[in-house]
Design a protein that fits this description.
The complex is a heterodimer of chains A (177) and B (407).
Chain A lengths: L5 H11 L4 E11 L4 E10 L4 H11 L3 E10 L2 E10 L8 E10 L4 E3 L9 H11 L2 E3 L28 H5 L9
Parallel strand pairs in A: 2-5, 6-7
Antiparallel strand pairs in A: 1-2, 3-4, 4-5
Chain B lengths: L5 E5 L11 E7 L2 E8 L7 H5 L4 H9 L8 H14 L5 H29 L3 H22 L8 E2 L2 E2 L8 H23 L2 H7 L7 H6 L4 H5 L7 H4 L16 H4 L6 H25 L11 H10 L1 E10 L2 E10 L6 E5 L1 H5 L3 H5 L7 H7 L10 E4 L6 E4 L1 H15 L2
Antiparallel strand pairs in B: 1-2, 2-3, 4-5, 6-7, 7-8, 9-10
Helix pairs in contact in B: 2-3, 4-5, 4-12, 4-16, 5-6, 6-12
Classes of the chains: A alpha/beta (177), B alpha+beta (407).
GO molecular function, one term (chain B): oxidoreductase activity, acting on NAD(P)H
Protein name (chain B): NADH dehydrogenase
Pfam families (chain B): Complex1_49kDa, NiFeSe_Hases
């Protein structure tokens, strides 16, 4: 198998989504006495091209999907999808973290489960914990929150819809019957 | 013919599952037609709690995500913070971290072997293997002070050194495991009953494992050579030669069944012993922590800005933590993902078309760790009504209990 260098991968993304890449960086980390290197790629992309970017990633190699991490930064929610490429070979793996920001008035993103079925649980978690609409994801029940969990509380948000109220005055929050 | 299916719920509390998780099966005759998973019965909101604590406090919270992976989570979390803040870990600390992580793998895999035997109805093997597990727990207690929740990880290194006098005790325990490994292998891999119950049961194809992003021994047993220690060697693993173990090393073929998962875990026992021996031989001398004074470390973290990922191969697979520091006392984001999270989905293809009697062993075969909530449901027997205890009720009940004990 031919391996692309991290620089090449970033270039490929830049070439394809020229205007939409907000920023990108390559991080090199070392470990052990021998100071062996491994690299991480961080790419931030506009949400309109996000799905296509995951598609491009799948053409390099079927990526390993780890998790979606969330960050409520006031007006926007930033989602970072953590992938890795070139697993299965000694010291070849590259971590690729693909981030995108969704404005709070339009919390919508396309589901990637048609490309990577393993992302379903993480997408469902983001849906119930942050209230992000995942387009194309079948409407399944809550995965981590109880079935009667109040509909307007999103535990991992930092604004007024967050879970602070639940923690301090649980009996005042209206539950779903 | 009218094909009528029946539904069987298993869980949240069931004799064959040690942890709370609900499965709803659609059964036709003895065969499983459909599987619905409903986790969340034990979700404790750890990430929410962690986002209100400083990084050093989170280490101890991360350690308590799971009682078995109590080295993997703090290991991954410390790495994430170190990567975010640009802290270099001294080499000696990297070696100590790996030794603790591998000792944990030995105890976790033997624990699993016992549970697997129990699910097959082979309870004498459960007792014998858990007896064998005591030795490594004693060693962990000797090295760290605790049997579980070791409390040895710290951002920038470890809290306790391994001294020259402690080495013979470590080697003694490793010799003990080398001695009994033959017996363990003989019981699990040569016993006709175990082979009969586990071969061609709960098969996960290579393609499914890849598409569902399975991790750890579950994916390796399906023939994917995926192991963070090999793919992206972190810490002292960069100096060692770790290779992902697939079942064909032992049996010459990959079936992706429960039997293959047993092979992978048992071979990893031997691998862990070798890794610890290599670490003991090559361990450099020097400092064990980058910054000894915790107040100074906290101040440094308070000024740090950046994001970092920590990945660790836990006994059950890849464990990943993401941390974002933004010049404040609390981290802006802390995301933790345990290996079972990714392995959940693999239960569906494994269980379809299997027999009811095979449910326990197939479920146990991915070594689930459903360490994930927070409520008690009370069912009134007279009218069948359900009610939940809130935080306020639980607090009142505990006050009442304390008054009863100490009037």
């Amino acid at each position: 198998m031919e391996y692309m260098t991290p620089e090449k991968i970033v270039e490929l993304f830049k070439e394809k989504f020229n205007g939409s890449i907000i920023n990108s960086k390559i991080e090199i980390k070392t470990a052990g006495l021998k100071k062996n290197n491994y690299s991480l790629i961080w790419i931030e992309i506009e949400v309109k091209d996000f799905k296509e970017a995951v598609n491009l990633l799948c053409t390099i190699q079927f990526p390993h999907f780890s998790i979606i991490s969330d960050n409520d930064i006031g007006e926007e929610i930033k989602l970072t999808y953590h992938f890795s490429l070139y697993y299965g070979e000694k010291s070849q793996e590259i971590s690729l973290n693909l981030a995108t920001s969704l404005p709070k008035n339009n919390l919508k993103i396309l589901s990637i489960t048609d490309l990577i079925p393993g992302a379903q649980i993480s997408e469902r978690e983001i849906k119930e914990m942050l209230g992000v609409t995942i387009e194309g994801l079948p409407d399944l029940s809550n995965i981590f929150l109880p079935k009667d969990f109040p509909k307007d509380v999103y535990p991992l948000r930092k604004d007024e819809t967050g879970a602070v109220k639940m923690v301090n005055k649980e009996e005042e929050v209206k539950k779903v019957e | 013919m009218n094909k009528k299916t029946y539904s069987i719920p298993i869980g949240p509390v069931h004799p064959s599952l040690k942890e709370p998780m609900t499965f709803n099966f659609e059964i036709y005759g003895e065969r499983i037609e459909k599987v619905n998973l409903a986790p969340g019965d034990n979700h404790r909101g750890i990430e929410f709690m962690g986002r209100q604590r400083n990084p050093i406090q989170i280490i101890y919270l991360a350690e308590r995500i799971c009682g078995i992976c109590s080295a993997a989570h703090p290991f991954a979390f410390c790495q994430a913070v170190e990567n975010a803040a640009g802290i270099e870990v001294p080499e000696r600390a990297q070696y100590i971290r790996v030794i603790i992580a591998e000792l944990e793998r030995i105890h976790s895999h033997i624990l699993w072997a016992g549970v697997a035997a129990h699910e097959l109805g082979f309870d004498s093997v459960l007792y014998l293997s858990w007896r064998a597990r005591e030795e490594v727990l004693d060693l962990l207690e000797y090295l760290t002070g605790n049997r579980i929740n070791y409390g040895i990880f710290m951002i920038g290194g470890v809290r306790r050194d391994i001294s020259e006098e402690q080495l013979p005790r470590i080697r003694e325990t490793l010799e003990y495991y080398k001695d009994i490994y033959g017996k363990i292998e003989d019981i699990f891999l040569n016993d006709p009953t175990i082979a009969f119950r586990t071969k061609n049961v709960g098969v996960l194809t290579k393609e499914d494992a890849l598409h569902l992003c399975a991790v750890g021994p579950t994916t390796r047993a399906s023939g994917i050579k995926k192991d963070v220690r090999q793919d992206q060697p972190y810490s002292a693993y960069a100096d060692l030669n770790v290779e992902a173990i697939t079942p064909d090393v032992f049996s010459g073929e990959v079936n992706g069944d429960v039997y293959d998962r047993i092979i992978v875990r048992l071979l990893e026992l031997v691998q862990s012993i070798q890794i610890i021996e290599q670490c003991l031989d090559n361990m450099p001398s020097g400092e064990i922590i980058a910054e000894k004074k915790l107040v100074k470390l906290l101040n440094q973290l308070k000024k740090a800005k950046g994001e970092g990922v920590g990945r660790v191969e836990a006994p059950r697979g890849e464990c990943i933590h993401y941390v974002k520091l933004n010049e404040s006392e609390l981290p802006e984001v802390w995301k933790a993902r345990a290996p079972t999270y990714n392995n959940l989905m693999t239960w569906v293809p494994m269980l379809i078309d299997q027999q009811i009697a095979d449910i326990p062993i197939v479920i146990a075969s991915i070594d689930p760790c459903i360490a994930c909530m927070d409520r008690v449901t009370i069912l009134n027997k007279n009218n069948g009504q359900k009610s939940m205890l809130t935080k306020k009720d639980l607090h009142e009940l505990s006050v009442q209990k304390t008054r009863r004990i100490t009037p």
